[in-house]
Amino acid sequence: METSTCSLKHTFLHSSNNRKKTIALKDQVHTTISCSGCGTCCSIPIVPVTDSDIKRLVKTTGKKASDLVKFYSPSEMEFDEDAEVWIRLKQGKRAMGLRRKNEKCIFLDDTNRCTVYQSRPMTCRTFPYVIDFNDDGSIEVSLNDIVDCKCIKLPDSDLIEVIAYTVSEDQEDDAYFKKIRNWNLKNQPGGAKEFLLWCKL
Predict the structure, then answer these.
(1) Does residue 200 sit within a domain?
(2) Strand pairing of 152-157 and 139-143?
(3) Which of 35, 55, 74, 127 is most buried by a 10 A CB count?
(4) Residues near 123 by Cβ (< 8 Å), separated by ≥ 6?
(5) Is the predicted pLDDT of residue 59 greater than 90, yes or no?
């Protein structure tokens, strides 16, 4: 079974007011890293994606959504049974993730660089940070150790850009999960093609 980066992600149960308040707290400093370019996070995990992620990638690459994603079974991706990523398809329960080639993300080149970096999925933008928003507007930051990330430690910083990505990720996840819930309520489940059309991809 391959790992999914969705198991790397932060908690999504926070109000938008707390998110806005958090971004304003620039006096907070947190553990900060820089990517070493090892490629581990683009090779070991399957990258889960939302419809918003795929719309950006379709626009950037000119490819069809069906060429970019695969619908993975529970034996292929590690999610809780009741996780909101599960889509009820004709062939069974599936989660949407980026396709892979030669045991790595289709967008990772031979030098371990992302070929769609400016349009990469939100989970890629926030990894390996795990950011939790507290009720008082403060945040807690840690680094996920689900893969052997060779990241380079930097001086602590306010992580404003990463926090902004986290807010966007939360919002896009919420919208995508709502679409999945509505799809899963259908009497007759459709296939992957129908689900992509449901998401207007």
Answers:
(1) no
(2) unpaired
(3) 127
(4) 5, 6, 8, 9, 47, 48, 49, 53, 169
(5) yes
